[in-house]
Backbone:
C-alpha cells in the first residue's frame, strides 16, 4: 500500500488539483439545477445545454475580440459577458415561452418538454457552431502556470484552473448563501420553495420568482460553461455529458442546502479525476458509482431532508 | 356602522352531486366578528374559498366594499384587503418567526429590490411590532418549524394581520391547539383584531369560543345558511343545538338539519 502510494503520489496530487477545478465547474451547473427544481418543480434536462452554449458563446466572443486586436484581458470580460448574454436571453425566453405553459402538469410531460428543449438547443448549437471542435484557451495561457509543491516534487498546474475556477465557485457559493439567507429576493425564493401556495396566498407574485430563479440558474450554468471553455475543446455532446453529471451531483447531495451541492460536487469531481489518472477505464462510471453508493445508504442524498426542503 | 363590507348573494357551487353552496346570501358587517359553525362538509370552507378567489361559484355574486370580486385571483383579492388564514398554518418553515411576518410586510409593500435585506430596519420594526401585539416577541428569532401548534397558529394570523387586511377570514383558528391554550389564543387574536379595526369571519367548532367572541353566528348546513343571528339567540335554538351536538358528540354522525329549522336572517 505504502509503495503504491509512493509510486502514484504525483498522480493523486494531479487528480486532486484537476478534480478541484472540475468540481468548481460542476458545482456551478448543479447548484442552478437544484435551485430551479426547488422553485419551479421542473427537472430541466436542457440545463446542461445552457452550459454548452455558454461555453461556445464565450469561446466565439473571445476569439472575436482577439481578432479585433483588443487587449488580452478582454478575454476574461468575454467569458462573463457571454454567460450573462446566454443566461439573460435564453433564460427568460425558455421560462416565458416554454416552461410557463407546463407548471403543475404531470412530471412525464415536463420531462418530455424539457427533453425536447434539450434536443432543440443541441441542434441549434450545431447549427451555429457546427460539429468541428471549437477552442479558445487564451484565458488559460495568459495566466501561466504555478508550481504546486507536492512532497518533494512540484506539479506545474495552470493558475487559471488552480485559482480562477475554484475562486469563482467559492464566490458563487458564498454569494448565493448570503443572497438566499439575507436579501428580500432570496428569502422570497426560499419561501416559494418551501410553500408556493402560502407565498401566493400572501400576495407574492410566484411567476416573477419563477422567472428570476430560472434566469439566474441559466446564467450560472452558462457561466460554468464559459469558465470551462478555455480548459477544454468544445464538441457536440458537451451538454448531455454535463446534465448527466449534474444530476449525479444533485442526487448525491439531495435537495439540500447549497453547501451540500458544493461538497457533493467536490466528491464527484475529485472521484472522477482520480479515475482519469488511476483507472481511466472507469472514468465514466465513477460519478455514478459514488451516487449509487450514497443513495444506497441515504436515499434522500447526503444533505437532503426527507420532510422539508432547503435551497 | 352596520354597513356590509362583504356581500354574498345567491352563491351556488356543486362538486359532482354535492352542493357545497346552495344559495348562500350573507352580509358581513363592518367591524363585526362573525362565526361560522356547522358540521363537516356543510360548505363552510367552500364559502371562504369562494370569498378569497380559490373557488369560483357557478352562480351568484360576491362584492367587497361595493365592488364585485368575482373571478379575481387570490393574490388580487389579498391586495384588495381580504386576508385569509388556513386550517393548517402556512408558515415558511425555513424562516424565523420574524422573517415570516417581515415577508408578509414585504408582500404587502410589493417592493422589488433584489439585493436589499428582508430585515431592513423599517420592515424589521413593523414585524417586531406585530409580533409584540400577539405576545410573540420572545419567539421572533425561532425557526418557524420549531414552534408549538398554538404559536404556529398565532404566527400565521400575525402574518395575515401584517398584510393589513380590512377583512380577515380564518378557518378554524384554534383547531389542533391544546384546550388549555385555546381561550388565551382567541383572546389575543380578538384583541389585536379589535385594536387594528379588522372585521373577522371565523369558522369555529368550539361553542364556548363562539359564545364569547362572536357578534353574530351563521349556521351552515348542506350548503345553506340555516340560521343567522347573535350567539345567544342562535345557540339557544333547539334545531341548532341538535346540529351542534351532531358535530360535537362522538359517533353522532351529522345527519344534517331537518328542514324545519327557521332560517332567520338577522
Residues:
Amino acid at each position: 500500500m505504502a509503495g503504491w502510494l509512493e509510486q502514484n503520489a504525483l498522480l493523486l496530487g494531479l487528480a486532486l488539483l484537476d478534480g478541484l477545478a472540475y468540481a468548481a465547474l460542476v458545482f456551478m451547473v448543479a447548484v442552478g439545477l437544484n435551485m430551479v427544481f426547488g422553485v419551479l418543480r421542473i427537472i430541466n434536462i436542457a440545463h446542461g445545454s445552457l452550459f454548452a452554449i455558454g461555453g461556445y458563446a464565450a469561446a466565439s466572443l473571445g476569439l472575436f475580440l482577439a481578432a479585433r486586436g483588443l487587449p488580452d484581458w478582454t478575454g476574461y470580460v468575454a467569458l462573463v459577458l457571454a454567460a450573462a448574454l446566454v443566461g439573460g436571453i435564453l433564460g427568460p425566453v425558455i421560462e416565458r415561452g416554454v416552461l410557463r405553459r407546463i407548471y403543475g402538469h404531470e412530471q412525464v410531460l415536463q420531462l418530455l418538454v424539457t427533453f425536447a428543449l434539450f434536443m432543440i438547443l443541441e441542434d441549434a448549437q450545431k447549427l451555429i457552431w457546427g460539429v468541428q471542435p471549437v477552442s479558445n484557451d487564451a484565458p488559460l495561457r495568459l495566466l501561466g502556470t504555478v508550481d504546486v509543491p507536492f512532497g518533494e516534487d512540484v506539479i506545474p498546474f495552470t493558475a487559471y484552473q488552480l485559482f480562477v475556477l475554484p475562486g469563482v465557485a467559492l464566490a458563487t457559493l458564498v454569494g448565493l448563501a448570503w443572497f438566499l439567507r439575507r436579501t428580500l429576493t432570496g428569502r422570497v425564493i426560499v419561501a416559494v420553495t418551501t410553500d408556493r401556495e402560502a407565498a401566493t396566498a400572501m400576495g407574492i407574485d410566484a411567476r416573477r420568482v419563477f422567472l428570476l430563479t430560472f434566469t439566474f440558474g441559466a446564467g450560472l450554468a452558462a457561466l460554468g460553461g464559459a469558465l470551462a471553455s478555455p480548459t477544454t475543446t468544445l464538441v457536440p455532446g458537451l451538454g448531455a455529458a454535463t446534465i448527466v453529471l449534474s444530476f449525479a451531483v444533485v442526487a448525491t447531495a439531495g435537495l439540500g442546502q447549497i453547501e451540500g451541492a458544493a461538497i457533493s460536487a467536490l466528491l464527484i469531481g475529485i472521484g472522477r479525476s482520480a479515475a482519469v489518472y488511476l483507472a481511466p477505464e472507469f472514468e465514466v462510471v465513477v460519478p455514478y458509482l459514488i451516487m449509487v453508493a450514497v443513495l444506497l445508504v441515504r436515499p434522500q442524498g447526503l444533505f437532503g431532508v426527507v420532510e422539508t426542503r432547503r435551497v | 356602522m352596520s354597513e356590509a363590507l362583504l356581500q354574498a348573494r345567491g352563491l351556488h357551487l356543486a362538486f359532482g352531486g354535492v352542493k357545497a353552496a346552495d344559495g348562500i346570501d350573507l352580509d358581513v358587517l363592518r367591524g363585526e366578528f362573525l362565526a361560522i359553525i356547522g358540521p363537516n362538509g356543510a360548505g363552510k370552507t367552500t364559502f371562504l374559498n369562494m370569498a378569497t378567489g380559490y373557488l369560483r361559484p357557478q352562480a351568484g355574486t360576491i362584492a367587497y366594499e361595493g365592488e364585485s370580486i368575482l373571478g379575481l385571483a387570490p393574490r388580487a383579492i389579498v391586495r384588495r384587503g381580504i386576508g385569509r388564514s388556513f386550517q393548517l398554518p402556512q408558515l415558511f418553515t425555513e424562516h424565523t418567526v420574524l422573517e415570516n411576518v417581515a415577508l408578509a410586510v414585504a408582500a404587502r409593500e410589493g417592493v422589488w429590490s433584489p439585493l436589499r435585506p428582508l430585515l431592513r430596519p423599517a420592515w424589521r420594526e413593523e414585524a417586531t411590532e406585530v409580533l409584540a401585539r400577539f405576545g410573540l416577541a420572545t419567539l421572533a428569532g425561532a425557526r418557524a418549524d420549531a414552534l408549538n401548534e398554538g404559536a404556529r397558529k398565532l404566527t400565521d394570523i400575525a402574518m395575515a394581520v401584517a398584510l393589513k387586511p380590512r377583512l380577515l377570514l380564518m378557518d378554524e383558528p384554534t383547531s389542533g391547539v391544546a384546550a388549555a391554550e385555546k381561550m388565551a389564543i382567541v383572546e389575543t387574536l380578538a384583541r389585536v383584531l379589535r385594536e387594528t379595526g379588522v372585521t373577522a369571519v371565523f369558522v369555529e367548532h368550539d361553542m364556548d369560543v363562539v359564545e364569547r367572541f362572536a357578534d353574530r353566528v351563521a349556521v351552515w348546513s348542506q350548503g345553506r345558511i340555516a340560521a343567522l343571528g347573535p350567539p345567544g339567540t342562535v345557540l339557544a335554538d333547539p334545531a341548532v343545538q341538535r346540529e351542534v351536538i351532531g358535530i360535537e358528540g362522538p359517533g353522532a354522525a351529522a345527519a344534517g338539519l331537518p328542514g324545519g329549522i327557521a332560517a332567520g336572517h338577522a
Observations:
- The two ends of chain B are 15 Å apart (CA to CA).
- The longest strand of chain B covers residues 4-15.
